[in-house]
Every structure is written in structure tokens, then in C-alpha cells.
Design goal:
about 110 residues
Length: about 110
Amino acid sequence: MNPGIGEASQGAVAGAVVGAIGGLFAVDVASAIIDKDPTRLISTPRLSLLCWIVSLPIGWLIGGQLGPRLRDALRSPLAEIIGGGLGGLVPVIALGLWGWYLVTLH
């Protein structure tokens, strides 16, 4: 049986946690790396909050779909958490690439 959209599971929680924490810093990582200044990670708090608001539910949805499918395929409960975490990385990586694009554009 396939998981429902938005259904709660361990994979969904793992995806939401990874997406939320990563979303807070994803946009500013590129400027922090280029400038070699870790204080740049919190240089845009409003944009970071917006990215957190966006990446948390996306991580929940993708992690909630990927985690249970990986658990069923590998027959391991730990695979659901790992799959959910990988699903939570999708919005984080997308926001990080967008941040990199913004920094190298200007």
C-alpha cells in the first residue's frame, strides 16, 4: 500500500526536520563559503525564515513519500528514516543552488 499524501510517518518527520534545519541556512551557505565568513549564514534572516517556511512542508511531503517506499523495498525500519532525510534534502539542495545562483550572478 502506498503512503497517502501528507500522511504522518517517521520518514515524513525526518524529511521535515532535515528540510527545516537545512532551509534556514541553505540560501546563505554560498555567500558564507565565497566570503569565508560564517556570520554570513545569518545575513538574511527574513529570507531564511521564508525558506524555512517553504522547505519544512516540502521536506514533510517528499520524505513522507520516499521513506515508506524505501522501507518497503529494503525491509528495514531504519531505511524509512534515511529515505525521509534524503527526501528532506531535496528542498535544501534546491534552495542552496538558488542561493549559489544569486551570489554568482552579482
